[in-house]
């Protein structure tokens, strides 16, 4: 799409510019080589560049044309180069009688060669010189380049004669691609035309297969670098899967083989249908609009559509908020739908060309392949597929014998995927194309057809690779048509740093993770889920629940509740019985419960476990929920699931299991405490009897109930050694590689703000606290167990890191170090996080624990937040029993189990309101300190 002459004239007045430049040289008889004149020329051009670019940006805001914007910038650049070239040869390096060697052609290559430029794009130029050269050519090239550089452009250039162009293009695929797109700008045109003619005959002719194979390999390598999914929530517009480079690759390949100069010519050649070309043009225009807006917004060649830019781009493109979806989410959904279209086009065309020109070089192009498909004349090596009449397999690619196979029996649209899954076949590109053209056959009759639903369920619950097949179903559009509720979340993005993929991609990946767990290929992240999945009574309900668990995202109603309603509607259609449907609905409604409780509740609090057991009600449901939770978290994105989360889930499972099997009532609290003491004493046989008896009296009953046996021993040895060494401060650092955390055990005199000091020390050293258990001994010492996220792979290095943190705590408690002041909101809100808004919410709950008031703080995460929260809690005269820190991308959920100074819950309504106000202020970085206020950390001294 080229701008009109009138449009271009509004952007840059070339005639006036040339006149003004010429006027600069009048006093020097037309000689423009003087440095002062050069400075004046540069100043004039800078003004022109600034004003023309501002005009282009204004037009982009007005008409929204992405390709038009890129073309306008390219045309302006052409005019600037022409003006600079003419000034150089007419006023700086004038030659009255130029020889055949004193000529030059300036060509645009790369993206600039296609006649498109983004605001921050490089200017790629090829200076073509004759075989014989003089210093004149080098001088002119140097003048043009330095002028462009001084104007602020990043210029990529090459200076070659025609023989060098041809020789290098033969040996270097990057140079060959650049010259393929070379476009004449200015200078000696016959020189450019000679180069183009020789390139076509001496390089391109007869080398299609070589070029196609190289470009497809280059594309695959680029995808591996950028991320194999086109549904990453911060996509790279240029290089990412489904981005502009994929469209470029498609056109390069088609242009190289079919010798076309415009995308529209691909329709005439039979490479694209009219509808496919329309998708091509529409996708390219949208991506260019986004890219141009992004460059203008950032003032740099930014290609990554990061969170901090997405909302502003959405506003610039006039997206608005709809119920259940924000403006930015609607914009990104459009983006991913376009990326999906790009994927469809590149997959169909590139794979077809690969099939024909790499594997079958004697073919007659895609049109010929379509004719063979329609006539039913397949290759002699095509073999019928057992159990699939009308289907054949060739080179492990599934295909059909007639293009009416889906019209004859629409259930074949589902059968084709069932066969691909069963035999691990790839899909022939022409079959993929035929499926896309047959989507209208997926009507209400097919959706309610028992055979079609049986085939779909077979794919969904396959023991092979269901993720691969479901993704192919999604890419072809079948999945969203056959399951309309799934279609609503296709390409849907959740504007959150926690979610790495679109909703549909997350659901498909979660099925893949589930399949890996069942096959025992999920590694050692969560051995319990691998063990439990083999004991399930009904694996089908787990797969269906996994597929549907987020299917109601983007609706005004809570997606868990709405999702359960969807399940009750759709499961009978899939062929599930009433009891199975209810189990699926229950799993969806509660699919976040186990993760939430494990990460933000005190798992040593009896009421936490009792309440959770009452919700789950059966051991089979507990197993299902655990496995679903693990797969769900792991499918969110790389690194989201870790050993610590796995450990919390296992702890919750093992604590709940006895309640569901009737074992929880076998032992009273007193019996449990006595047994814990006996077990510990048995491990302390190297202590004296006196020391053992004295130690057992140092802890309150709640400590024995809530602390794991392994940690009881660690604490005992830590306190015993401190007593022997007569130390009042003691620390133990234990790296836990499997859980992905490092445990800090801290013994110190009971101190008003010990947890705040610990949080401050961790903040100062960059450590991230993920959990904390707070205890106090009967003789006035604090015994805190802090878990920080692991950073270093080697245990020795991680142990050394933990010791640095404990040393800082030690020095701070002794008054030798000062911790930093609270982080202000302004300074904390930097980087990607500033793009998000998370409403601060402070919940004060007395029903979650029998002994503690639970404070749940939700807000926007930032450095030093935990430090500020613990400082505020200290000034509120509250005892902290345990702290549980959870981060979900930009959102943090910090939970504290607290009592007042007398060990009682906070029941006074007025005081609860003060707590909410103080903690809300702390989330914003405003901590109200009252050094005079006495604070105690003594925990409740009665058995919980």
UniProtKB/TrEMBL annotation:
SMART domains: HDc. Its cofactor is Mg(2+). GO terms for biological process: regulation of nitrogen utilization. Pfam families: ACT_ACR9_3rd (PF24931), GlnD_UR_UTase (PF08335), HD (PF01966), NTP_transf_2 (PF01909). It comes from the Bacteria. The keyword Zinc-finger does not apply. Residues 743-825, 854-934 form the ACT domain. One of its GO terms (molecular function) is phosphoric diester hydrolase activity. SUPFAM superfamilies: ACT-like, Nucleotidyltransferase, Nucleotidyltransferase substrate binding subunit/domain, Poly A polymerase C-terminal region-like. Its EC number is 2.7.7.59, 3.1.4.-. The keyword Repeat applies. PANTHER family: BIFUNCTIONAL URIDYLYLTRANSFERASE/URIDYLYL-REMOVING ENZYME (PTHR47320), BIFUNCTIONAL URIDYLYLTRANSFERASE_URIDYLYL-REMOVING ENZYME (PTHR47320:SF1). Modifies, by uridylylation and deuridylylation, the PII regulatory proteins (GlnB and homologs), in response to the nitrogen status of the cell that GlnD senses through the glutamine level. Under low glutamine levels, catalyzes the conversion of the PII proteins and UTP to PII-UMP and PPi, while under higher glutamine levels, GlnD hydrolyzes PII-UMP to PII and UMP (deuridylylation). Thus, controls uridylylation state and activity of the PII proteins, and plays an important role in the regulation of nitrogen metabolism. Has four distinct domains: an N-terminal nucleotidyltransferase (NT) domain responsible for UTase activity, a central HD domain that encodes UR activity, and two C-terminal ACT domains that seem to have a role in glutamine sensing. This is Bifunctional uridylyltransferase/uridylyl-removing enzyme. The gene is glnD.
